[in-house]
Amino acid sequence: MGDVIQVASPVLNGNEKKYVNECLETTWISSKGKYVDEFENRFAEFCRSRYAISCSNGTVALHLALLAFNIGPGDEVLVPTLTYIATANAVTYCGGKPVFVDSDPETWNIDPNKIENKINSNTKGIIVVHLYGHPVDMDPIMKIAKKYNLFVIEDVAEAHGALYKDRVVGSIGDISTFSFFGNKIITTGEGGMVVTNNEKLNEKIRILRSQGMYTSRRYWFEVIGYNYRMTNIQAAIGLAQLENIQWHLDKRREIADLYYKYLGSLLEYIEFQAEKDWATHSYWMFSIILKNTVKISRDEFMEHLKNDKVETRPVFYPLHTMPTYRETKEKYPVAEKVGHKGINLPTHGLLKEEDIAYISERIKKYCEYESCDGD
Ligand SMILES: Cc1ncc(COP(=O)(O)O)c(C=O)c1O
């Protein structure tokens, strides 16, 4: 094998160059321009929702969503402990407290059965995260939210185009947020989007995103806002990516099917993140858990793969184990198991069958290692 097999890679195989060149030629390179409007309109359509508000990245998309619900000191927001840190940090930016919830053992997503006992009079909402592309079981979540009068934010950073039953994720909660970082299913380099069906929330978020300036009155500010805008160049890339999103999704499913084919004989050693019968996974990351039958640690396993030029990532460390959010009293056994034993394998549109066959053959070898001495 020659080059390193990367865990993620953008694929810019559509109109990206053409649209970016047009921005340069017409000098519309800042946060105004036709691509911003077109990307927002087309993205709202893709999410089968009324409004999409572009912004600088997925973290500020979450911040805007929480600001729209007036989250502040004393407020609590339920968040899965097994997620990327931005989900919790956005609550902290607002002065609120992220309250962690353990994961479902099959999907690794927030476990709806573990939510109700975390709710108290300070709880204002729930952020669900469709982890690695697998949709959250939304029906029970929406039922709990209704019962306790909580908002629901869907963090769809990792799950563009995934389906919950026949609904596209991002169209179910009150607000959804997306990331278009370079490793995501579609990318703008850095970028994000907030999606909602609610007209008032749409207006509020647009104002907050653009320094708090009223859209109908230039240089009139009644709230403290932010400069969280996306540029026309980023939106140009995003529009080109969105035109091809079905290709990106199909490619990822192909890669996942190949992993199932080549790793399917190793179930004595590994577990997969489930794909439930009500779910269409969008496979941002194809991930495995090492069972106890594997004799080497997860980190040694990844180190061996790295030496074989296969880049991997550990599944996120649960947030309650991070120095910034450490908790010792509460237990989160499922998230701890997945976080301790999980690995993200290379998943992107440039991979070929021979890459997956090679990665799987190396995985088999390390699954069967007797000790870390190896060969
Ligand atoms: C679940 C989740 N939420 C939020 C984010 C933040 O997105 P960004 O990196 O665009 O700020 C990420 C990013 O990778 C993520 O995985």
Automatic annotation (TrEMBL):
It comes from the Bacteria. GO terms for molecular function: pyridoxal phosphate binding; transaminase activity. GO terms for biological process: polysaccharide biosynthetic process. InterPro entries: DegT/StrS_aminotransferase, PyrdxlP-dep_Trfase, PyrdxlP-dep_Trfase_major, PyrdxlP-dep_Trfase_small. The active site is at 184 (proton acceptor). Keywords: Aminotransferase, Pyridoxal phosphate, Transferase. Signal peptide: none annotated. It holds the Pfam family DegT_DnrJ_EryC1. Its cofactor is pyridoxal 5'-phosphate. Coiled coil: none annotated. The modification N6-(pyridoxal phosphate)lysine is found at residue 184. Belongs to the DegT/DnrJ/EryC1 family. PANTHER family: DTDP-4-AMINO-4,6-DIDEOXYGALACTOSE TRANSAMINASE, TRANSAMINASE. This is Perosamine synthetase.
